[in-house]
Amino acid sequence: MKVYIAQRLGIAVLTLFGMSVVIFALLRLAPGDIVDVLFSAAGYVNPSEKQAILKELGLDKPYWRQYLDWMAQIFTGDMGKSYRYDLPAWQIIKPLVPVTIELAILSTIVSIVLGVPTGIVSAVRQDSSLDYVMRIISLAGLSMPSFWLGMVIILSLVSWLAWIPPLTYVSPRENLWLHSIQFLLPALAVGYRSSALIMRITRSAMLEVLREDYIRTAWAKGQRERAVVWRHALKNAVLPVVTVIGIEFAFLIGGLVVTETVFNLPGVARFLVEAILWRDYPVVQNLVMFIAIVVILSNLAVDLLYGVLDPRVRYAS
Amino acid sequence: MAVTPAGVELAAPAAVGRQAPWTTTALRFVRKKPLGAAGGAIMLVMFLTAAFADVLQSHDPIATEAASTLARPSDAHWLGTDHLGRDIYSRIVHGARVSLIVGLGSTLLGSVLGGIIGLLSGYAGGKIDLVSQRVMDILQGLPLLVLALVMSASLGPSVPNVIVAISIPIVPRAARVIRASVLSIREMQYIEAARALGLRHLRVAFRHVLPNTIGPFIVLCTAQLGAAILTEAALSFLGLGVPEPYPSWGRMLSVSAAEYAQKAPHLVLFPGVAISLAVFGSNLFGDALRDTLDPRLRGA
């Protein structure tokens, strides 16, 4: 198991390094540099002023130097300075992190609670009308933009219950009840979409497992359906499901970008959009890197969980 | 759904010379996969809407009308008007064009790029394969929307740039699918025969391996189309997608969203329904196509 963990950690570090290069390159491959973009809005600027700004931002240095500077920043925990706020970026990002993490975890819980049981039932009752209905509902979840679903949720609350959900952030200490509702609504909108994927994978994994010999044996022994499905089959079907939940976590953060905007929650994802709109590139670069780190950590967690769930995985390596 | 012998037969005509007339194939598809056919019908309607938007429109989609802003759906404006008095129905009809152009464009660009990478890395194997797979891992690690967001922000808002921005996250997904099918094709005897005839590697890869990956390729494209349309909607919603004056479904939601939603819920409702229907159709169709063309990919 130790070798396995070390291996996974090594891959994670390598991937992170690669991601930093990709992010760095993507932001620089684009035609024109940051200063051009900043100044195209302002109109005419004299060249010496432009040079001064380039120098201040360190953009006059060669690319490899800029990259190394950035890495040095990340390792020292200094995330650069925000152009827009003229403050250290980390100071702005720090209070936003818990909001996004809370939302991401809540959405994941929603997606698992909705996705896994429906997937199992759908597989056990394959090709029944219940199966068809659930598959259509899940496919609909994959088709609706989560931000639109969020808007529809708000709208229906307003028009049917005549109640407007809080449109500014309520901290849990202020009002725990309002806070929970405020987070649960977007979590539902985002989680529904993810649950659709989880449901599909659970269903197909269960279908495969349910045809195995040992399941037939379990039936033949006269086991109850509940025991066969939930004790015998699910245990072996859960592996691909765990993978999808891990991958979904990355997609989820993508979904949060828009959903945080719709629900006006002060999270990392909404701030990323703002930073992009304001061309606050140091913040963009670091935020995307931050998201990459979260994604890689969640993938790592899935890999390690694999090792725990399936002994074959840890011995094969 | 179980794979019926008929389902397998459906895939066969593409490879075998004697083909059943396409009407028979289509009819069989409708009978075996009613849901998929329904999805196909939705897609067809969307294609036709996009192609004949100028005929189908009831008003100029860009013309503003100060006298009737935020009008409810009525005979004059079937789906109502927005805050500038623009006709929602006509804007949705034209939005289909934008959605399809961006959706198809980015799907094709991403799939072709990814397909070539997958083909070369699967065929070459060894170090090239290892390196390109790691690079694809890295690209795939970033959330699709975040990657598209960064891309479109650094490229600037325009239709071609949005297409490029959305295509990049599709590349690793395409590369993976095509590589997997190349790996099995590579070991076939006719490839060995082609090599034995003295054909060059590139020629074998593009002339003999590539045509046989067309099944997974089509499946991949239909699967990605829905995601591409959704991403375009999200980007436009955030103001980083298709620029004015093109009517885009995503942007119709953003302008109207916060301020006017309560007064005029139809502003939020109809464009969202259009997006959902389009993606729903392509998902249904894609699923059925996957079941028929490539049963191995089920559940993937």
Kindly describe this structure.
The complex is a heterodimer of chains A (317) and B (300). With 317 residues, chain A is mostly helical. Chain A is built from 14 helices and no strands. With 300 residues, chain B is an all-alpha fold.
Strand fraction of chain A equals under 5%
> Which oligomeric form is depicted?
heterodimer
Determine the structural class of chain A based on helices, strands and strand pairing. Answer: mainly alpha
Categorize the overall geometry of chain A.
Answer: globular
What are the key terms here?
heterodimer, A: about 325 residues, mainly alpha, 14 helices, about 0% strand, B: about 300 residues, elongated
SSE order and pairing:
The complex is a heterodimer of chains A (317) and B (300).
Chain A: H1 2-29, H2 34-42, H3 47-56, H4 63-75, H5 89-93, H6 97-124, H7 129-143, H8 146-160, H9 176-210, H10 213-220, H11 225-262, H12 268-277, H13 281-309, H14 311-316
Helix pairs in contact in A: 1-13, 6-7, 6-9, 6-11, 7-9, 8-9, 8-11, 9-11, 10-11, 11-12, 11-13, 12-13
Chain B: H1 5-15, H2 22-32, H3 34-51, H4 53-56, H5 88-124, H6 126-141, H7 144-155, H8 159-186, H9 189-196, H10 201-209, H11 214-237, H12 249-260, H13 266-293
Briefly say what this structure is.
The complex is a heterodimer of chains A (317) and B (300). Chain A has 317 residues and is mainly α.
